Amino acid sequence: MSSISLNRVSVLTPHPLFQDINVTFGTGDRVGLVAGNGAGKSTLLRCLAGMAEPTTGTIIRSRGLRIGFVEQDVPERLLNLGFAESLRRAIPPDERAARGWQVDLLLGQLEVPDEFVERPLHALSGGWQRLALIAQSWIKEPDLLLLDEPTNHLDLEKIRLLEDWIAADARDTIMVIASHDRQFLDACTNQTLFLRPEQSRLYAHPFSRARQLLGEDDSAQAATFARLDREAARLRQSAGELRNIGINSRSEAAQKKSAQMARRAQQIEQGLRPVPKEKSGDIRLATRSTHARVMMRLDAVAVTAPDGKSLFRTEKLAIVQGDRAVILGRNGVGKSQFINLLRRAFDGIGETPGIQVSPAITMGYLDQQMSQLPSARSPQDFIGETFRLGDQRSRTLLASAGFPVVQQDRPIARLSAGQRARLGLLALRLAEPNFYLMDEPTNHLDIDGQERLEAEILARDTTCILISHDRHFVETIATRYFLIEKGRLREIEAAGRPAWS
Fold first, then answer.
1. pTM for the whole thing?
2. Rounded to a whole number, what is the distance in angstroms from the first to the last CA of the chain?
3. Longest dimension (CA), the chain
4. Do residues 382 and 479 both lie within one domain?
5. Which pLDDT value is given to residue 48?
């Protein structure tokens, strides 16, 4: 029987990411790994894969355990390989001839377009790159599969395909899945491990139920903490009063009793463990006012790929103030190209026939790669100089967004994907737009960050066009749906969305 056991595993950097984890996972266990950005999910996965060592503790793997690890980014060694070749290379060299048929089978099951089969991974969209990494682990037939944000960039059809595979073909594989996709976690896991610096907690339930139980346990712990804190305060007060009585009456018994009560109070205080408080940082938006009703008009806009290939045309449509329009479609149909074309039209870059932008628009833009962030500069330099803020004001804003002082002067390139996402959202807020273009804004946000972004969009009645494959996020904030299919973009009703969208 395949298994992996963690014995008092801790990682300190130098502050604890997590401590004293004692768990064993065996055949059929599918574990959701949940924590805030930068809280150690990827680090723990790398430890499980044997690519990193914990600071303390041991990890014991059953003999012959085959491990598949899907990281967030495409390894550099694979970028120049074609889709099919990357799958072939995942098979042991002495088995490639006999198992070549599996490559063709997978390409068919994943509906990889013919033109993508030999195309290098670096030339594919983020969704197809992600799918290639998952397929490489799939073909290895692992006993333990580690997935780091597997749904990032995948369209909803491919997310459901992945869910079906986990539920059926991979039901006996041990899985540890780090994900911020709430519906995916509910569909694919049967256990949930909440990583925390002090005391991580494991529940034998999928995310939603486990989160409810975690909240109940935290509330019970907080109530116990408050009760014991009151008891310690009462003992200290009584000890003080009794000590004064003992001194005044020269009673050694009273002073001895006072010392016992003081020691008991100290023991209680040392045993108190406050309820952990997540410190992933605040997310806020700002929306400046405008009297314009129609923010943007589109009339038969032609969207093309970078090589000039025609992707689709739009209908005649208008985006009005208060619209929250979500663009749907399969990976590779041109959703990101469309968002980029709208941004170029606003910036006045090149010719963009068919797009009419209101002069009242102040646009805020966020793409999947956070390419608007200068990777060589620090968050402090970027925020302070871009928005002409003083040093102290910049540092205060960065701290409120979840950046400790030690991270504020590091190059942006060294930040985690989630931290870059929060920095991009902070920059959006400071720009005070009245129209948002966002391409997968929740991809690298933790669950707390997603919920805060949802709340901000709704509270500020934000006008936006966005791409997202996060079903919970889309269903919470969308007011209009636009589908790219068969060479055209058209508006659809929510109830009319195809199953894969």
1. 0.79
2. 38
3. 97
4. yes
5. 95
